[in-house]
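pinging the channel bc i need a second pair of eyes. not urgent but kinda urgent?? the chain im working w is below, pasted from the shared doc
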Amino acid sequence: MFKEQQLKNINKKEEFFVIEKNIEGNRERILDLRHKIHKNPELGFHEFKTAKLIKNELERLGVEILAEGVGKTGIIGQIKGNENGKTIALRADIDALPIQEKTNLPYASKNKGIMHACGHDTHTAALLGAAGALKNMAKQNKLNGNVLFIFQPNEERSDPKRKSGAVQMIKALEKTGLRDKINAFFMLHVCSEMERGKILLPKDMLCGSSSSFTLKLEAPGGHASESWKLPNIEKILSRIETKLDDRFGFKGPQEEQPKIILEPGLHKTDSQAVNTLSERGEVSWTLRILLPGMEFKPTRTKIIQEFKKIILNEVEPWQKKGAKWSVDYNPGTRPVAFRDPKLVELGEEVAKDVLGNDLEISRQPILGGEDFSYYPEPFVGKSMAPKKEIPGLAIMVGGANPKKGIPFVGHHQPNFRIDEESIIDMAKIYAEFSRQYLEK
């Protein structure tokens, strides 16, 4: 029995070396794919050139394409391994951001005002690299199950009509009957604020929810000298912002990460002069909640109720004077929570295989939002019946490297950069996680 177990461990290591050798052998191609995507960034649901590149590479590798044009640009591919095995779905997002790049990289964006400032180009290239390695395993009859490759558009934006790329991909998985066959979802996200060789892998939750509100006000306007008897939109908005900050603003030390954030962002009025009262105004808030499912829903519901109550208390006294208000609410994404501790254990084990046993792991979840949260959910839309809950795991992989002159830089910034070695790291983790999950 001991010799049998030893043999299994040796085979496992040998198979990992097969994956590693394949990815290292295709290093230049993987990085070239990243450069092409980075140079030609496209916004959500408009990633047509990116989708064409992905399709061409999957066809070159011999990966079966099950769906394309999902949400206009999404692609689903499949590699079939040995029969009767499980199915794992790997997801990479492919969209860019409306940001003007300032990196001066040789492959910097050539599309004015659009940039891959969150690393989605690296995710796409890494997953294509993993597809090559897993296809090689399948050809050798060493892949004990099936792998789905989900190249998702439009992760950066979701709206009240739930048009996020994740929702579109899930609908396609439902329509084709693929979702019922999936046993687990897995995704990676590069992190430019963490050093290469480190990962972020909390035990229960990677990141918080992301919702938003936009309050719109209308009033007759008028002269500022009569503001004592007319609705003053600027003043009403300021009072609402102050009361919401008093109620939900974080009061702890700057070093301590809050569980709830409600922060105002866009603030616009149409007044053209200091002595003129606005006729229209609006302000938007982002709401982030870092709480597990049992606490998340009631907390969000309570905040929404108090939000509307504060607005009503400030606007109601002026309604007889012509003040009107409306709120656009975008429920956005839920927290990315891990429901299967075995997946977390496997993620840690695989990361150590790829990055070394001295791997540093951060367990602190973040407040950033991710629409990957939709994939494991048992309910995907009003028009569909409740479906099964599917385990999912997400890992953030360090991409900064100050020693190589690649500093810690926040995402969504014009000077966003990462050490490209992290792309190779992610390709190996994608492939090896899939192999070990299907093996076990």
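so The chain has a mean pLDDT of 93. and Residues 117 and 413 are 6 Å apart (CA to CA). — does that match what u expected or am i reading it wrong
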